[in-house]
Specification:
Blueprint (H helix, E strand, L loop, with lengths): L15 H11 L2 E2 L6 E4 L2 E4 L4 E2 L1 H13 L2 H9 L24 H19 L5 E5 L6 H9 L8 E5 L4 H8 L7 E6 L6 H16 L9 E5 L2 H7 L6 E3 L16 H7 L1 H20 L6 H15 L4 E6 L7 H13 L17 E4 L10 H6 L5 E7 L7 H20 L3 H10 L4 H11 L7 E6 L4 H22 L10 H14 L10 H12 L2
Parallel strand pairs: 5-6, 5-7, 7-8, 8-9, 10-11, 10-12, 12-13
Antiparallel strand pairs: 1-4, 2-3, 3-13
The protein binds 6-O-phosphono-beta-D-fructofuranose (F6P).
């Protein structure tokens, strides 16, 4: 029996409220004389650089109502089985609830006790974290962003199956003073299990007789970790109703706590909980995730921007782009709606970026003068956590300048006049002004954090989680499954067997078959 009646789901292009929203957006404009700020969980979200009009706001409310926004939000926050294709809840908000269910409270308490005991006993000079995707990016991001409180231990990361990743991680470390933390929801990810085996071999080769006594496992399959030899007291659990890319709030935060302190992961959870509370009760016009989602759907599915660039003007947020790449693209990279039909409009954008001002010297040329452009999320912190106030002012000035230039562009007339005034020949000035013109009219959001605290980071990440949920609701797709990653994994294990000469397949394309033959011959 299907978990939903496909007949109940209207494919988006057939929805009158969608047609009205699309028409309103197509006929809206940038209202540069209107300041659109939304306050949420200590963050300020500036939506002024998106097309808007009374008609778009009215159509947006009608569209969300037609998609059952209130009911869907309630179901998500109540832990109902909103992940229909896997018949699961997506209850990441429970992980940061002030009064969580017993199992969550128990694991939070176990993590805190483990970290406090290790700190008290001065255990482990280094931690090697093994995990990939949602079992990796959040740990990297939170550790990097919140290292200001001082690193307690060296934290090294191993995600890629490429042996260089593990080699780099263990280089210079004392095996006797290194804790291996393996994070894997499924405990079946081949890269992670292979890297774990190599790391345990490294301990064994150093003469450590009980290597698994130096292993902590964080997984939704604790029995698999215990069967491998990890002591039960060092196995921490999260659950199948926690998506991998939504799992930082769980025991997955343990390595962050080992590196920069337990108060960091607790602060991150508090900030996320504050954003949850905002999302749960703010009316649509002041609901930051909903407003970000509506702007995102307008930019993607109506105005045709194929990508979203993340420009975080803070060097400590270098992992925000890859974190959001997985969160957004693994959630919204779907083309079939809940009824099993083609969605009928463009869905999840490609998400990319790097911290500003580095991006200005890398791809802002494309953002300003490229044929397509992209929507941009600018993120900045009002206060720095360093002493150089002038450099921080320069950073923020660059952020604001780039955003304004994307929106307003430059005047070819003014540019031409300037060149003529400098004595340039008219035909040269005319010709050059065409090359130098920034066309403008490119949308962006500005998200302002008071400063980069664990609380603000948690609020920021939860903002994006809920934005993605609302965009999926509008498009009618499931943001919580990831069927698209399965085929490649299965193919890889088959090709690996062929590279070992243990199997042969005639189903390969000519090129793949050629390289399997070449690589097999050279082994
Ligand atoms: O990329 C597919 C995926 O399943 C992600 O959703 C997940 O975060 C990652 O692989 C790692 O999975 P696991 O935590 O089960 O090792």
């Amino acid at each position: 029996m299907l978990p939903l009646d496909p007949a109940d789901h209207v494919t988006l292009p057939q929805l009158p409220e969608w047609q009205a929203f699309r028409f309103a957006v197509q006929n809206a404009s940038f209202c540069t004389d209107e300041l659109r700020l939304v306050e949420a969980a200590g963050l300020t979200i500036d939506l002024s650089a998106h097309v808007t009009s009374p008609a778009t706001r009215e159509a947006a409310a009608a569209l969300l109502a037609a998609r059952g926004f209130e009911q869907a939000r309630k179901a998500l926050l109540a832990g109902e089985h909103v992940n229909k294709t896997e018949d699961r809840a997506a209850w990441h908000t429970m992980l940061r609830a002030a009064e969580p269910i017993d199992a969550v409270a128990r694991e939070h308490r176990r993590v805190r006790e483990f970290v406090q005991r290790a700190d008290a006993q001065g255990q482990w000079k280094a931690v090697i974290h093994i995990g990939i995707g949602g079992s990796d990016w959040g740990v990297r991001l939170a550790t990097d962003a919140c290292s200001g409180s001082g690193a307690r231990r060296t934290l090294k990361f191993v995600a890629n199956i490429d042996g260089h990743a593990l080699e780099d991680a263990i280089l210079g470390l004392d095996p006797k003073d290194a804790l291996i933390v393996v994070t894997s929801k499924s405990f079946t990810t081949t890269e992670t299990l292979a890297n774990l085996r190599r790391a345990v071999d490294w301990l064994t080769q150093a003469g450590i007789e009980r290597p698994y006594d130096q292993v902590v496992a964080i997984t939704a399959r604790p029995e698999a970790a215990r069967a491998l030899g990890v002591p039960a007291a060092q196995v921490f659990e999260f659950w199948d109703w926690v998506g991998g890319r939504y799992s930082l709030w769980s025991a997955v935060g343990l390595p962050v706590a080992m590196a920069v302190g337990i108060d960091v992961i607790e602060g991150i959870r508090e900030g996320a909980a504050a954003m949850d509370a905002h999302f749960a009760q703010a009316p649509i016009d002041e609901n930051a995730p909903a407003q970000l989602a509506l702007a995102g759907v307008a930019n993607r599915s109506v105005l045709g921007y194929g990508s979203l660039s993340i420009a975080a003007y803070d060097a400590r947020l270098q992992f925000l782009a890859p974190y959001l790449q997985q969160l957004d693209m693994e959630s919204l990279g779907k083309s079939v709606d809940m009824a099993g039909n083609p969605v009928g409009v463009s869905t999840g954008p490609s998400v990319w970026g790097m911290p500003g001002t580095d991006g200005q010297h890398t791809f802002f040329q494309w953002l300003h003068q490229g044929t397509d452009g992209a929507a941009v999320d600018f993120i900045m912190c009002r206060e720095a956590d360093h002493q150089w106030t002038e450099e921080h002012a320069m950073l923020l000035a660059n952020c604001l300048a780039q955003r304004q230039t994307l929106l307003q562009g430059t005047s070819a007339d003014a540019d031409r006049t300037g060149m003529l005034a400098q004595g340039m020949a008219p035909d040269m000035a005319e010709w050059l002004s065409r090359h130098r013109r920034h066309q403008g009219g490119r949308p962006s959001t500005l998200i302002v954090l008071p400063r980069l605290t664990p609380y603000a980071l948690g609020a920021l990440l939860a903002l994006y989680e809920h934005k993605i949920f609302v965009q999926a609701l509008i498009w009618g797709i499931n943001p919580f499954d990831q069927w698209g990653v399965e085929a490649g994994k299965k193919m890889a294990s088959g090709i690996l067997q062929e590279l070992h000469g243990q199997a042969r397949s005639t189903a390969h394309d000519l090129s793949t078959q050629h390289w399997i033959s070449v690589l097999t011959a050279s082994r």
